[in-house]
Amino acid sequence: LRVSFAMLLVNAAQMIRMNTDLILVGTMLGPAEVGVYTAAVRAATLVSFVLTVASLVAQPRMAAMHAQGRRDELRKFVGSTTRSIFVVSLLLGGGLAVFGERVMGFFGSEFVGGYQALLVLIAGHVLAAASGPLTSLLAMTRHHGRAAAVHGVSTLTNALLIVVLVPRLGIIGAALATSLNLALTQVALIVAARQR
Prior knowledge:
The protein has helices at residues 2-29, 31-67, 71-98, 100-105, 115-130, 134-140, 144-194. It is an all-alpha fold. Helix 1 packs antiparallel against helix 2 and helix 2 (31-67) runs parallel beside helix 5. The two termini are 21 Å apart.
């Protein structure tokens, strides 16, 4: 029950964080800007999809290796999984960056102005992919409380960064805040994983 509650907190924090920027951008900049930013966020989410799916697929193996005390094998598995996630995310992000204006144009010609925000968001997701399935690793090795704490703090950090950067930089500020927060979250997860 304790594990389930911690994972519920992780998922809730991630969902809140994923929508905080949209709510705050809409409040601070208005409906036209939040529409453009939302399109950029949705397009950039394609890059994070790789990490999400790979993490889910890797969880049973990580849990089994941990339960059987196969720490070296677990470390190698996480390393190879991380490299695969990063390479695929980098390729997907590169393709999205090259065709990003066209992708944003699918939403309408007025959305092409969100291309720079899209590039910043892609960079954030690729950087996050570089550290691999850390939330899953922590959860599957009984360190779910650390993962929940990191994601809880991340939600607050994201909101703070958005409040600071959006008034100065508009949707680029929101993209910078989100990408910086993704990077800080991954650093915190790396520290938590190394403490285990």
